[in-house]
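[Meeting: bench + compute handoff]

Bench side (C.D.) handed over the final construct sequence. Compute side (W.E.) agreed to return the predicted structure before the next meeting so the bench team could plan truncations. Sequence as handed over:
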Amino acid sequence: MIVRSTDEITGTERDVAGTGWRSKRIVLGGDGVGFSFHETTIEAGTEHLFHYQHHVEAVWLVEGEGSLTDLDNDVVYELGPGSMYLLNGHERHRLVARTRMRMMCVFNPPVTGQEVHDSNGVYPLVAAEVG
C-alpha cells in the first residue's frame, strides 16, 4: 500500500513546475502500478500547447475555468469544475486558463517524473525502473 499527501511531495523531485504550470506527481512509473497520477495547476491567464504522442491522459478539472482546443479537429470545449477530458487519440491540444485551474491527471503508460515537454509539447516515452 502507498499513502502520500501533496504536502509531502511539495518541494521534492515529484514537484515539477514550468512557466504557468505546476505538477505534483503523486504516483509515478517507479511505483509499479501501470499508471501515473498527478495534481496539476495551470495559472490564470496562461496558454499551453500539449501533444502526448506516447501517452493517454485523462484529466478531471476540480477547480477553475478555461477552454480546451482539440487542434487536430478544430473543436473548442469550455471547461469548469467537474469537467473531464480524455486524450485517447493522442490529440494535439491547447489549454487556456481563464482562472487558476487545478486538475487531477492520469497517464498511461506512466511517466517517470523526469520527462520534460519538448518544443511541440510532447513527453518522450521513458521506461520506469520499478522499485
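W.E. noted at the follow-up: The chain has one helix and ten strands. C.D. will use this when planning the next construct.
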